[in-house]
Amino acid sequence: MRKPLVTVLLALAIAGAGAAPTAAATPASAPAPEAVTAPAAAPALQAVDYAGTVALSNCSGSVVRLPASTDSDPALVLTNGHCLETGFPEPGEVIVDQASSRSFTLLNSAGSGVATLRASKVAYSTMTDTDITLYQLTRTYAQIKSSYGIGALTLNDTHPAAGTAIKVVSGYWKRIYTCAIDGFAYRLKEGDWTWKDSVRYTSACDTIGGTSGSPVVDTATGKVVAVNNTGNEDGERCTENNPCEVDENGTVTVREGINYAEETYGIPACFGAGNRLNLNASGCTLPRP
Question: What is the pLDDT of residues 81-98, one digit of tens each?
């Protein structure tokens, strides 16, 4: 796991923000033949900043909404399963509707804390097949927007693609990492836990302890496609903080210094009206208790 805040004192010196995407420069103009049609402009990138992210006591996270969520629904916070305040869920363990009063510092676009949000419960948490915790808050999306002018990040409900430009936004460290999706690990094994179809970053996303739970944002859409969770720190094989990739044939690959995230596209199918969890819903593939 990308540890939920280890003693990373050196990281305190790291400056806080990645630059927002900029538009491509326009080539110098030149006379064009009358019959030539100018190429279509590239689609604009979405500005990715800290608005809607949160800092936990030991991890990062974000206020998220599902594609079908309404403004009157209780808001959700997404982070990792291994960031759960009661400790790591055991392999095979799934936690639903567990009381919680955990607090989160809501950040604005500049990375400044503007409010303290509070959970009413753990809606869902597991480290089996994936590494996620979803907290339900005591406030709705509309109440948060009205009070602080900050909207939630939207979870994409389609599988991410290799080569996608992404930003990993850490509310804990107030740092944004910029890279791309390098590919996917069929199975990612770390200690006693195994995750399915994990996102592998290109090397530029050199995330550290405390970035656990950071949203992974597609810069073309501004939507969340994964949640940052781990990386191979020392080149060890399948040990804690040193995950290994296992392919369909059981072949193990160790990539020292490479970091990973867990996909989130499957989450929306497991929530119904009012952001209510329904693990029996059609299309829901999250592990059940």
Answer: 999 999 999 999 999 999
